[in-house]
Amino acid sequence: MSSRVGERGQITVEKAIREELAVYAGDQAVQWVEDGRLIVEFVPAPHRRSLAGTLASKATRQPADEDWAAVRESARSTPDPDRAERPAGRPER
What we know:
By secondary structure, this protein is α+β, with helices and mostly antiparallel strands. The protein has helices spanning 15-21, 68-77, and strands at 28-34, 37-43.
C-alpha cells in the first residue's frame, strides 16, 4: 500500500493497517529515522472515560467496608470496552 505525502507533510495510515495494529484517533504517533527509514510507533491515548479525580472534591467520606486497594486494582485490570485488545509488542500506556 502506498499513499502520497500531503502539502503539510502528512500521510494517511491505511485502514487495514490501523485495524491490524489497533490504532485509534487520539493515539500518539512517535516517529524516528533508523537506517534511513521512517519508523512510527503508536502509543495509546489516555483512557477516554476516566474522571481522573474530577469528583474528588465531592467525595466527603469513604464507606468503611470497602477495600479500596482491591477496587482500584480491579478497575485498572478491567479492559476498556471502547478499545480492541492491542496486538503483542504494542506499548502500554
